[in-house]
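USER: Please consider what follows.
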Amino acid sequence: MIGLFKWGERNHPALDTGGLGSVTVALPIVHGCGVPAPCVGVIVDRGGRTRRSAAGSRIALAEGERAYCFHPGPYAADLLPFAAAPEIGLRLSFSADCPDPRVAQQRFDLFLASEADGRLELADLAAAIEAAVQRELAQGNLELPPCTTLDEWNAFRAGFNQLLYTRFGVTVEDCVPVDLGAANDYARILLARAAAVPASAPVAAAALAADPAPPPETLDAGADARALRRLFLELPCLMCGLRLAVLPPGQQLFRQHQSLLQRLDQVSLSVNTMPALELAAPNQPLAHDQQLRRAQHSRRAAAALDEAWALLARLEGADDARLPALFDEADRIIANLEHDCAARRIALPESEPA
């Protein structure tokens, strides 16, 4: 019996943890693997619900489930807050595992369930964080002016910390400004941007070269599926966060708040019944250009979802005077979600332009 027991132990699947905790944040883990210390296991069922498995335990997966193993960190990354100024940087230190006992599903677990596709590399996570920060700065939701004062820096850090926790589920341990001029060759960056756009293209088209999410020119069914998966898994959690917003006394904001929740619920229902990318109707294939149009609307809906998470971060701790403006912004974001999800559903006639 002892020999059989030892044989069973030796035949458990081995987990290659090379780079985990340094260049890799999370990696897939199979049934029967043990969760190495100090990592955390996250099991995702078919519906996107997650549960955690402690270090040292063995992963047991039911049919249709998948699992990840992530190292809590800390991790370090250099960010470019302004795409047009690569010499200005932020040196970030963050951790991935700071569980919130108030919620049933941790935000980082949701991030793994909805956005991780295989291994989650630190470089990919840092790029996503950088894109989110650049978007918020470009829209004026975060402010980092030249010669930033201490009060301005503290205000930026508060918004920055909340954005990263709400959007990615990571906790900022430290963030300091750094000069990256020696590490980033601005001339090479400009040449790379110019090479991405034909010389005969107008100036407006050249400006799109710096867009972190340009419209796809070729059909990418995988990107469409990933966008729909994000909408399917994240919209219910987004609604829960919005539902918990603290409102000042008064009926106007209450009615607006309820209307926003009802509209988000309708968007979520639309996503849950979204047609397949390649079908106009059962057993009726959809034209290629129509599939491309659908994929573009999926991408735009996912971009609106990113804006919604950023807005939810700004709602945390917002004073009563800012709430009307934030609710108006929520109305715009939800309108974009409604439009793109509705456009993703329809199949236009071939004679009608996409």
About this structure: The chain has three domains: 13-70, 75-179, 221-345.
